[in-house]
Specification:
The complex is a heterodimer.
Chain A (H helix, E strand, L loop, with lengths): L2 H28 L8 H15 L9 H25 L15 H12 L9 H4 L2 H31 L9 H26 L9 E5 L5 E5 L3 H10 L20 H25 L3 H27 L31 H14 L14 H12 L10 H20 L5 E2 L2 E2 L2 H27 L1 H4 L7 H15 L14 H30 L16 H32 L2
Antiparallel strand pairs in A: 1-2, 3-4
Helix pairs in contact in A: 1-9, 2-7, 3-4, 3-6, 3-17, 4-17, 6-7, 6-8, 6-13, 6-17, 7-8, 8-9, 9-10, 10-11, 10-12, 10-18, 11-12, 12-16, 12-18, 13-14, 13-18, 14-16, 14-17, 16-17, 16-18
Chain B lengths: L3 H6 L30 H13 L3 H4 L3 H19 L6 H42 L4 E5 L5 E5 L8 E4 L9 E5 L1 E5 L1 H4 L5 E4 L6 E2 L4 E4 L2 E5 L7 H10 L7 H22 L1 H7 L6 H11 L2 H20 L2 E3 L2 H9 L2 E5 L5 E12 L5 H12 L5 H14 L10 E3 L7 E6 L2 E6 L1 H10 L8 H10 L3 E7 L2 E12 L3 H10 L3 E5 L4 H11 L3 E3 L4 H13 L4 E5 L5 H6 L2 E5 L4 H6 L2 E3 L6 H39 L17 H25 L8 H33 L4
Parallel strand pairs in B: 11-18, 11-20, 18-19, 20-21, 21-22
Antiparallel strand pairs in B: 1-2, 1-3, 3-9, 4-7, 4-9, 5-6, 5-8, 10-22, 12-17, 13-14, 14-15, 15-16, 16-17
Helix pairs in contact in B: 2-5, 4-5, 4-10, 5-7, 5-11, 5-23, 8-10, 10-22, 10-23, 11-22, 11-23, 12-22, 13-14, 22-23, 22-24, 23-24
The chains are: A mainly alpha, B alpha+beta.
């Protein structure tokens, strides 16, 4: 790994280190009980929305009401987006003449964007009209991220409130997340992207004469505006099929670095928000550290693995050393603008969050290098995870860690003074079971079906990795594609959508139920007998619990996929 | 001759509201049983029970072990089915796996049975004491009627004479008697039971040794204390505790995760061209699901309750034992719990112009014949600190204490020495024409404010000085409170003393807080306040006016010597009536949770090594590269899988003693406890199976399993 690659990582770490407290503090005020900066600007806009929606922003909701509102809102979003995909052929703002999508594909695409997954079974430039891109996909990019933020904030409230029947108001959290956090940040980011050469127009195809003398049709579109929220909201669905590998989406190292920061900014910042709202900064930093260790570890691993030479090419006398004309490492499936190390960093970042944007083909990574994004997703998107989803995922793991470790100090386990009892454990177990059931169950079924295995591009262990990657990506709401699997079949379209729904709502509902259950409790004051959860020891324990629980669940299938492929090459 | 009344007359008088009046120093009593962990008879019974517990209806209560039983049955069926078609090697393998899976289930049953064993043996002993007797019931008109004890009604008044067995639980309403309660407490020394006050409760099945009492029956036959005690020690009414339920949910969840991981492994294996025999998949499932903790969980709970019984504490529910571990505030009565409850001479303070040794000589003479604890302590002080000799004076004329004079003393060789309440002595000196020195007032004042009791001493017309009597804090209490503080538990001293005295004793004993001039209402208010702040409160009590507070507290330990009302209200009864035992109860509660958590951690950590044993073994035939994962270098795929199964079964047996004894408990703060247990059971749990499985592999390979 070159010095430049290390420097890039360091600069990114510095940016995160700087933005986490700033953004985290701001988020805490936006979702806190007292006033927030910008009330004068945003207040009138929000009141307009509340009046239009018949919402009383002062009334709070118990968790079942909060959950019902969230589910109803998401259901309506899926229906609207499904309609848009089906009808895009006859709707305006369609300069490239995209036809309506088939039912299975429309369902898959609609679910995908509403669940913050952004798995795309179609090519962006040919499968979605500019109208859908702008009013459907971009809108859901904002809203799905806002839903994630709302759930995370509701869980924090559950942990820090005492004897409270309510956990906030879903509509207020949703609106505030959009108006005060996502829109302003995305607006600024879009301007920076545009300044760096990311396109922003409403053109259709433009014929361009290439260097080779042939003519190429290049579609334009409102890319910069969507690119910003695609990364900021950890959505990841590209305007173009090539996603962030496309020069119109991600032209240079500066935009690439900005993308990496945008992806990581809110998930990491939320740990600080948590610490601040809990009035326990150390607690927030411990969650940050656990996420950071997993993210940084997987990033360095992927960067190292891809910077190494491909052993199959070495005997053929191919030089893979760094020189003035090439970076060191395996360039197969990588963009020359970025090279192997940056591709590894981006792959780890995009899968550690629930983003799923790509700048390289993960399918072409070395087996171990490709296992890094796969394992990152299997962690359940907690390193640092999606907007909101990362924090609530990590906090559920924290509840599990507290339960096991708490017993070992001789008390009923508690987090922030809230006792973790049977009711909470039931929900934690449900949370931890849901995604493996979807991923392993559906992947196991697919691998038995001839119609499903025929979609596999590469036979053997790599083919297994392709199928497992697809369901892992969908089930964990990541949306990155390993590629190599033709996912646009009725079987995959439907089953992947089912995995996405399970991976989103069968986690959100238990989390809200946990929030509701914890909010009602009276916290016990911390004493010397309380398990300290704001210490490096607990941070280490948290990382250990995440790795062991996930490792034990997925080790067998990993052994038959990437592990055997890596060992046997 | 007593100084009790003198106390009442003085400042700083002890007015412990509703506190124990048992002021004798509490000595450690012998525990119920000091027998070895396992006795042959218990082991024999447990062995038989292990098989009886195979009943699927019973097994279904424990989801983890139920899965193992189903797996064992399935492997046995498969083994029988393939007996003819399979090779000899395959048959040996399948037979051994099936056998060891059954052992796994049996070991788990054995752990539970042996934990229950001691309780059952004890229940048998108790049942023998529950003999049917005839009660003499006194009817309304005074007529006496003989009624079988099983026919008694609540409210019946029974006359019990010396030598008779008390027919049922109740309160003494007439008379006083010494009662032999050894049947329930194991303590052979008789106890006094009398009508009125806080020592009125009697237990059915105990024997009156002297005198005659009338008992009003308060429980129906079949619901008596002994009946409940039998049910408790036998575990008949055992219900899962809240934490046990939560842990069971986690274990069931983990079981489902591993079932899923293994069941879906088969399609992946088929795709990879390495379809697995069902026996191997079952072996993998059993190795992965948390069998270690699943097998020992109920044994840990039963053993925890049993540890309480060993210390003569009856917990009415496991919930109370768990709550004890969670307690963050202990309310302790001062008298009898923190202090001995009787004042001891602490120092001698002469008034100006009197030599300290002269004062010591005078008090020694005045107290030589004083047999009260205070009197003896004065003698001891004079002898120990001033080197005087306590020798009898035949000519001494004892002046006993009377309520009128409120002093006592001695007339010897023309010397008249008196000690007593300050104002009485002042009058006595003035009557004799003496004058009271000016510095007596300040000395008395200082002693009173420090929480002590001043006892003035005079000879003839001259005041010599003051004896400083102090309520003595029991030995070792300061250290125990220190240990509690390290565990994060606050102690609050409850006393009827005035705030000044209370503060002084609180400081000396090292309690964190005190509640002075406490009335029962104050106590209730304090408990409510602590609970509102999220604290769990434990307390002890014996009086009827303690009952509401005992019921309100999260852990209420009633003294067996106390009233029936108190015993009904609390959720534990201490048969030894030793209030300091609350501290041990808290430790047992903590130890119970620690044992559960440690074995859960150990169980989960074990899985890592089992994967490294079994996964390569399953697939190395198709993917030779996976040999790299066989880090233990196990001899063959079959020996590897079998070693993991055998280890999984044997580790249960190896941990039974730990489950019964409990993880070693040390008073320390939570961070230290966590670090230590995480190292031993987490890291140890990761490493141990690597060693164990390798060792078993070496053994079974040597035995010829290929």
């Amino acid at each position: 790994m070159s010095a430049a690659a290390w420097w890039q990582l360091l600069v990114l770490v510095a940016l995160i280190g700087a933005s986490t407290p700033l953004l985290g503090r701001y988020l805490a005020r936006v979702f806190g009980d007292s006033g927030a900066p910008g009330d004068r600007v945003f207040g009138p806009v929000e009141r307009l929305v509340y009046r239009a929606g018949g919402i009383d922003p002062a009334s709070e909701q118990p968790w079942p009401v909060y959950a019902r509102a969230l589910l109803a809102f998401s259901a309506v979003s899926v229906v609207v987006l499904y309609g848009l995909f089906r009808l895009q052929g006859v709707l305006p703002f369609n300069p490239t003449g995209v036809a309506g999508q088939r039912p299975a594909l429309s369902f898959n695409s609609a679910v995908s964007f509403v669940t913050n997954t952004n798995w795309q079974n179609y090519a962006g430039e040919s499968g979605a009209s500019q109208l859908v891109q702008m009013t459907g996909l971009a809108v859901q990019n904002f809203l799905s991220a806002a839903v994630g933020l709302a759930v995370a904030v509701a869980l924090i409230r559950g942990l820090v409130r005492r004897r409270s029947a309510t956990i906030g108001n879903f509509w207020v959290d949703l609106v505030r997340a959009v108006t005060r956090v996502l829109l302003p940040l995305a607006f600024v980011a879009a301007l920076v992207f545009a300044s760096q050469g990311v396109v922003q127009n409403l053109h259709g195809f433009r014929p361009v004469r290439t260097v080779e003398g042939t003519t190429q049709q290049i579609p334009g579109g409102p890319v910069a505006s969507q690119e910003a929220i695609k990364e900021l909201g950890t959505n990841g669905g590209g305007f173009y099929n090539a996603n962030s590998a496309h020069p119109f989406e991600n032209p240079n190292p500066i935009t690439n670095l900005l993308q990496l920061w945008l992806i990581l900014s809110i998930p990491f910042a939320l740990t600080f928000t948590f610490g601040r709202m809990a009035d326990d900064r150390r607690q927030g930093w411990v969650v940050f550290a656990a996420m950071f260790v997993l993210w940084a570890g997987s990033s360095v691993l992927a960067m190292q693995l891809e910077s190494g030479a491909n052993p199959k090419l070495t005997p053929a006398g191919v030089s893979q050393a760094a020189s003035s004309s090439q970076p060191a490492g395996s360039m197969e499936g990588k963009e020359v603008r970025f090279g192997p190390a940056t591709s590894g960093l981006y792959a780890a970042t995009t899968t550690g969050t629930s983003n799923g944007a790509v700048i390289a083909a993960h399918d072409s990574f070395s087996p171990a290098g490709g296992a890094v994004p796969l394992a990152n997703m299997m962690l359940g998107e907690v390193s640092p995870g999606g907007v909101g989803a990362g924090l609530y995922g990590m906090l559920v793991f924290a509840l599990l860690a507290v339960f096991i470790a708490g017993l070992m100090v001789g008390r009923t386990p508690e987090l922030l003074g809230k006792k973790i009892q049977g009711a909470e454990m039931k929900l934690v177990v449900l949370y931890i079971l849901a995604v493996p059931v979807a991923v392993l169950g559906l992947a196991g079924t697919s691998i038995l079906l001839h119609s499903a295995t025929s979609s596999i591009a590469n036979p053997g262990p790599h083919g297994l990795s392709e199928v497992v990657y697809a369901f892992t990506s969908a089930g964990n709401n990541n949306g990155s594609a390993f590629a190599g699997l033709s996912g646009n079949t009725d079987w995959y379209g439907t089953t992947l959508a089912v995995a996405m729904l399970i991976g989103r709502y069968l986690l959100i509902v238990p989390v809200l139920a946990i929030a509701g259950s914890l909010a009602r409790k009276q916290p016990a004051p911390a004493t010397a007998g309380t398990l300290p959860t704001g210490t490096p020891l607990f941070g280490g324990l948290l990382v250990g619990v995440v790795l062991i629980v996930v490792g034990l669940t997925y080790f067998p299938v990993l052994a038959l996929g990437p592990i055997v492929e890596q060992l046997g090459r | 001759m007593s100084l009790v009344e003198e106390r009442g007359a003085d400042r700083g008088a002890d007015r412990d509201a509703g506190a124990s009046r048992d002021t004798a120093p509490v000595e450690p009593r012998r525990s119920r049983s000091t027998s070895a962990l396992v006795e042959p008879a218990i082991v024999r019974r447990a062995l038989a029970d292990s098989f009886r517990k195979l009943d699927p209806r019973q097994m279904a209560r424990n989801p983890v072990m139920f899965v193992v039983e189903v797996g064992s049955a399935l492997t046995t069926v498969l083994f029988a089915r393939d007996l003819r078609s399979a090779t000899a090697q395959e048959n040996v393998f399948a037979g051994l796996v099936a056998g060891w899976l059954w052992f796994t289930v049996l070991f788990a049953n054995f752990a539970e049975a042996i934990a229950e064993g001691r309780g059952k043996a004890q229940a048998d002993t108790l049942r023998r004491t529950r003999t049917e007797t005839t009660a003499c019931v006194r009817r309304a008109g005074g007529a006496v009627e003989e009624v079988a004890s099983t026919e008694l009604q609540v409210g019946d008044e029974c006359i019990v004479e010396a030598g008779e067995i008390i027919p049922g639980d109740g309160d003494v309403i007439e008379g006083i008697a010494s009662v032999d309660e050894s049947a329930i407490t194991g303590e052979s020394a008789p106890v006094i039971r009398e009508s009125g006050g806080d020592r009125s409760a009697v237990t059915g099945g105990t024997r009156v040794l002297s005198d005659r009492i009338v008992v009003r029956v308060s429980t129906r036959p079949g619901e008596s204390f002994i009946d409940r005690m039998i049910a408790l020690v036998e575990g008949a009414s055992r219900q899962k505790t809240p934490n046990e339920i939560a842990l069971n949910i986690l274990l069931a969840g983990l079981t489902i995760v591993f079932l899923l991981a293994v069941v879906t492994l088969q399609p992946f294996a088929v795709y990879s061209g390495a379809e697995q025999p069902i026996v191997v998949l079952i072996a993998l499932i059993v190795c992965l699901i948390p069998t270690t903790i699943g097998a020992l969980l109920s044994a840990i709970g039963i053993a925890g309750m049993d540890r309480l019984v060993q210390r003569n504490v009856l917990a009415m529910s496991g919930r109370a034992v768990e709550a004890a571990g969670d307690c963050s505030t202990l309310l302790l009565d001062k008298t009898g719990t923190i202090t001995y409850g009787n004042r001891m001479a602490f120092e001698l303070i002469p008034v100006a112009g009197v030599d300290e040794r002269d004062l010591a000589g005078a008090v020694l003479l005045a107290s030589l014949a004083d047999e009260t604890p205070e009197g003896r302590s004065i003698v001891a002080l004079a002898v120990d600190r001033y080197g005087l000799e306590a020798r009898a004076h035949p000519g001494a004329q004892l002046v006993p204490f009377t309520a009128q004079t409120r002093m006592s003393g001695v007339d010897l060789d023309g010397r008249a020495i008196r000690k007593g309440a300050t104002d009485s002595l002042r009058r006595w000196v003035e009557d004799q024409g003496g004058t009271v020195p000016a510095d007596l007032g300040p000395i008395v004042e200082r002693i009173a404010t420090s929480g002590g009791t001043p006892l003035a001493v005079a000879e003839g017309g001259a005041v010599l000085g003051v004896i400083h009597l102090k309520d003595t804090v029991k030995q070792g209490m300061v250290e125990r409170f220190d240990a509690l503080r390290r565990m994060g538990i606050r102690t609050v001293m409850i006393t009827g003393d005035n705030p000044l005295t209370a503060a002084a004793i609180a400081a000396e004993a090292g309690v964190d807080d005190y509640l002075a001039e406490a009335t029962p209402e104050d106590k209730m208010a304090r408990i409510r306040a602590e609970q509102a702040g999220g604290n769990l409160v434990a307390m002890t009590g014996d009086g009827t006016n303690d009952a509401p507070a005992l019921a309100l507290a999260d852990v209420g330990v009633a003294m067996n010597s106390g009233t029936q009302a108190a015993k009904e209200a609390g959720n534990m009864v201490d048969l030894d009536s030793d209030p300091t035992k609350l501290i041990e109860i808290v430790e047992i509660g903590k130890q119970l949770l620690i044992t559960r958590g440690s074995l859960t951690t150990f169980s989960i950590a074990n899985d890592v090594a089992k994967y490294f044993a079994i996964i390569p073994a399953m697939f190395v035939g198709v993917f030779p590269a996976l040999q790299t994962l066989n880090v233990m270098r196990l001899a063959s795929p079959r020996s590897a899988i079998l070693s993991a199964v055998v280890f999984n079964a044997l580790v249960i047996v190896a941990l039974i003693p730990l489950a019964l004894r409990g993880v070693k408990f040390r008073a320390a703060n939570a961070a230290d406890v966590l670090r230590r247990n995480l190292l031993v059971y987490g890291v140890g749990g990761l490493a141990a199976p690597f060693v164990g499985i390798k060792a078993i592999d070496l053994v079974i390979t040597a035995l010829g399993v290929r």
